[in-house]
Write a structure and sequence with these properties.
It is built from 10 helices and 10 strands. With about 375 residues, the protein is α+β, with helices and mostly antiparallel strands. α3 packs across α5, α6 packs across α8 and α7 packs across α9.
């Protein structure tokens, strides 16, 4: 039988041997049906009989090379065709969605243009617990706004059966660009659970507790959405690119804010850990102790840094300069983490300015200074 290269036959060529009289010969074959057991009637034979195993193996390797190249060419062609089809669908999808967004923006009917009575909730797939990202998150935030629902749960239509849920009559799904685990790009239709009713009573449950961090990202994303009507009309990619940038910016800003909160907490912990039973030997130790004393003496008041600075100015054992006190405030006061020297905003200067305007304190400070001068 002459060998052929069927595109779907992925069985590799191999070598078999048999004796004809006293002579051992070799042939090259492969299975016709890869799913059946190997037997004579299920073999396809390559032309030629070989007297040595090495010659037969070389012929099999050559045929397998042709087979693999054929498969690779076919797969490459299929990938190109698939990518071309996706590119066409993507272009049409983005053009249609951009037109819809532009129409809503003209009416000021988008979630980022209008004030809302309730905060935004980041869209999530409750089955995978995956929060949607970038432009897909923005699209679903807009749909939640249009649906007037606080429910951020979105599932693929194929996932409804597992939730014992059915789509309500007249409701429509929302298409999103997706990428599967193998990196293949395509589209999937999602439905919000507020658009569904349970097959059984309470089959898909109620809304779980919202993730405050993700919701904060959603709000920040909307706040930093710089899309304008001119931009969305000029390019069908504008909405997607700007939404992606807003999502990334929101993440970075929230990360910076969390770092500031962590830094503030670290400074508060240092003040609370100050040992009041020991006499401090450094300006830092004095500052932390004074902060703790005033924090504990007046827990309802937030002026412990002001009182600590005053105590250091009136310190009998050592005269601390205003410059040194400003340094201590900048390094160790929790509120000073918000300093922005570029904008002329420094907490230490604010504290000393408050002290400077405290007439009662200034009189006491002046008397101490005069007393110290008289003893010199």
């Amino acid at each position: 039988m002459e060998h052929t290269l069927g595109e779907k036959n992925l069985e590799k060529w191999a070598v078999s041997s048999q004796f004809i009289g006293d002579e051992k010969i070799y042939q090259v074959y492969r299975k016709i049906n890869v799913h059946e057991v190997d037997h004579t009637s299920n073999r396809e034979w390559a032309n030629g009989i070989f007297k040595s195993e090495q010659e037969a193996l070389a012929a099999a390797d050559k045929l397998n090379g042709v087979l693999e190249n054929k498969i690779e060419v076919n797969e490459g062609q299929n990938n190109l065709e698939s990518k071309a089809r996706y590119a066409g669908k993507k272009e049409a999808y983005r053009a249609k969605l951009s037109t819809e967004i532009a129409d809503k923006m003209k009416e000021r009917a988008t979630v980022w243009q209008t004030p809302r009575e309730v905060p935004a909730h980041m869209p999530v797939n409750p089955t995978s617990t995956h929060y949607f990202q970038k432009h897909n998150a923005m699209i679903l935030l807009q749909r939640q706004y249009e649906l007037k629902t606080p429910d951020p749960r979105w599932v693929r239509l194929s996932q409804l059966k597992g939730l014992d849920a059915m789509v309500k009559k007249g409701e429509r799904s929302t298409a999103l660009e997706t990428t599967d685990k193998n990196g293949v790009k395509g589209f999937s239709n999602y439905i919000n659970l507020s658009q569904c009713h349970p097959v059984r009573e309470k089959s898909f449950g109620s809304i779980e507790i919202y993730d405050l961090k993700e919701d904060a990202k959603a709000e920040m994303m909307l706040k930093h959405n710089t899309l304008t009507l001119d931009k969305v009309l000029s390019s069908s990619d504008a909405f997607f690119e700007i939404a992606d940038k807003a999502y990334v910016a929101a993440g970075l800003i929230l990360k910076e804010q969390q770092a500031l909160r962590d830094s503030m907490q670290s400074r508060l912990d240092a003040i609370k850990a100050a040992d009041l039973t020991k006499k401090p030997t450094t300006a830092m130790g004095v500052f932390l102790q004074e902060c703790k004393k005033n924090m504990e003496a007046n827990p309802e008041k937030k002026n412990y840094v002001i009182e600590a600075a005053k105590a250091m100015l009136l310190n009998d054992n050592k005269k601390y300069s205003k410059a040194k006190i400003k340094e201590m405030i900048t390094k160790y006061a929790p509120e000073a983490i918000h300093d922005n020297p570029a904008k002329g905003k420094k907490y230490s200067e604010f504290i000393l300015d408050v002290i400077q305007k405290d007439v009662k304190f200034q009189k006491a400070y002046k008397k101490i200074e005069e007393a110290k001068g008289a003893t010199r």
